[in-house]
Amino acid sequence: MQTTDPRQSASRRGASRLWRENRGAMAIITALMMIPVLFAMGMAFDLTLAQSRKDKIQGYSDAAALGGVTPAMMSQSDANSVTQSTALFEGQLAMLPGVTYSDSNFTITATDNDSGVQVNRTVVVTWKANSQNVFGTLLGMSTFPISGTSTAASSTAPNINFYLLLDSSPSMEIAATTAGINTMIANEPGANNSGSANYGGCGFGCHESNPSADNLMNPGGASQDNYALARSLNVTLRLDLVNSATQNLMQNAYNTEQADGATYQAAIYTIDYNFNTLQALTGCLYTTQTCANPAYTSAGNLAPLEVYDNNCLTSSNCNSDEDSYLDMGLSSIDNAMPNPGNGTNNAGDTPQEVLMIVSDGVVDELYNGNRTIAPINTLASWCSTIKARGIRIAFLYTTYQPLPTNSFYENNVASFQPNIATDAQNCASPGLFYQVSTDGDINAALQTLFQEAVATARLTH
């Protein structure tokens, strides 16, 4: 029979007590260690919640920035873009729970700047807020700060006012093609009845109310002037092409502004012995717009100057056919055009200005008491004056053709004819000169010149 050693029993009882005591201590230690773990888990939860709220607000911010540069907003001022973006941001942010902020915690700016051919707008939304904590309050951290920035940009074409100065003097009444010129020569014997390219006593296809005084000997009799002869022969004059090209330009300008999101206005003037208004500045360009008198309709009223007879405007006013007052026209249109702006839609800003000249480039006017026939811009520097104001000049030069059998040409123009194109180009702004000779396409040239003017538009700070 075995007996238990009293010493072994005591040892087992002591080990049991120690185990029970250690187990209690471990429970306390574990409980103490759980506290920071729980706080860490709570903080992680709050951080995750804050990040989720930040992502949502960043989405609101992105949408607000983009809302300020939509096509609709690009047609308005930068201040309106700020108002729109602010409304979008605040409207969405107000619906997000658990976030505190004040109006001073975010800023929204919209800036238009010069980037060459376009008005560039940049909208920047910068925001700060506080995400409310669930567990962090136990540690005295009631919120986590969150912040972000969104940037959106877009571009639009600048607003432009186009001023057209169209030469309607008798020299623009020449037949538009070589075939037309030859037809006129073959059917209009002229004052000397020689069959030469004399174009009658008035020259070219002139429109006279009293043609019998010049003894034109046209097939239609004494009452038929050279203009009527051209009409009876279905000969297209250069001025006819300018007429249709100007109408097409108004349609082109309307279509372009719709595509570009810009605003274009146009004014149409003619120049002969006087400065004439066909259309005051208007934003009503084409017939599809709701307006009483679109510029397209006014452009169709371009007509040749009717004189009394050779050398006389009326029966009592004989001016030796000084009917091309181009310098006077430049002076008058300079007064008609305001100083250009930057072409943005911002408060206080105004459109850019472009002057479009269509002419054969020859001045025939009374200057300092004497009849003067010379290339444009050689008597007075009106082209330079206009360009110095920041107004660009586009020049469509319809070539002044040599007419060696015409006495007026030989006596008055032949000596400087080679210089006309150069002086017309010097009048134009860089890149905005186009020349069309006989048989050339005036319509295509004018539309190209317009598109070049739009494409090279620049803000003028």
How would you summarize what this structure contains?
By secondary structure, the protein is of the alpha/beta class.
Textual characterization of the structure:
The protein is of the alpha/beta class and 461 residues long. The protein is 38% helix and 22% strand. It is built from twelve helices and 16 strands. A six-stranded mixed sheet has the order 8-7-5-12-15-16, sandwiched between helices. Strands 1, 2, 3 and 4 form a four-stranded antiparallel sheet that branches. A two-stranded parallel sheet has the order 6-9. Helix 8 (326-336) runs parallel beside helix 9. The radius of gyration is 41 Å and the shape is rod-shaped. The termini are far apart. The model is unreliable at 191-203 (pLDDT under 50).
Shape type:
rod-shaped
Which blocks of ≥5 consecutive residues have pLDDT under 50?
191-203
The CATH class label of the largest domain is Alpha Beta
CATH superfamily of the largest domain: von Willebrand factor, type A domain
Helix content: 25-40%
Mean pLDDT: 82
Largest sheet: 6 strands, mixed
- Just name the CATH architecture of the largest domain: 3-Layer(aba) Sandwich
The ordered H/E elements are HHHEEEEEHEHHEEHEEEHEEEHEHHEH
The number of helices is: 12
CATH topology of the largest domain: Rossmann fold
Question: How much of the sequence is in beta strands?
Answer: 15-25%
Lateral arrangement of strands in the main beta sheet: 8-7-5-12-15-16
Q: Terminal Cα separation, in Å?
A: 118 Å
Tell me the number of structural domains. 2
The whole-angstrom Rg is 41 Å
Summing up helix and strand content along with how strands pair, one would put the structural category as alpha/beta
Number of strands: 16
